[in-house]
Write a sequence for this structure.
């Protein structure tokens, strides 16, 4: 097996993932833990023939838990700012492949 650096591609991007506090359609009073994560995402891909395999490892730059519907209602009723807990992954590894037709 002959592997050369020309078969590798290195790249980087930005990623934003979020859970909104309000629904676009329907009611927003259900349970959820809204928030968002902004990450820098380095990537490497390896091309062999018509197939390419890739891996990305997002690095979180900002994590923010926003107020949910219930938090806003509790704040309105009590006059005391309320914001629930959140759970963000410490890291993730994304892998995949693509085929050229």
């Amino acid at each position: 097996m002959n592997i050369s650096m020309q078969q590798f591609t290195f790249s980087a991007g930005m990623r934003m993932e979020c859970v909104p506090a309000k629904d676009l359609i329907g009611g927003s009073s259900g349970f959820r833990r809204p928030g968002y994560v902004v990450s820098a995402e380095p990537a490497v891909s390896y091309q062999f023939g018509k197939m390419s395999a890739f891996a990305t490892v997002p690095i979180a730059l900002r994590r923010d838990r926003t107020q949910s519907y219930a938090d806003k209602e509790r704040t309105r009723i009590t006059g005391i700012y309320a914001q629930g807990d959140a759970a963000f992954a410490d890291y993730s590894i994304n892998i995949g492949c693509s085929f050229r037709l």
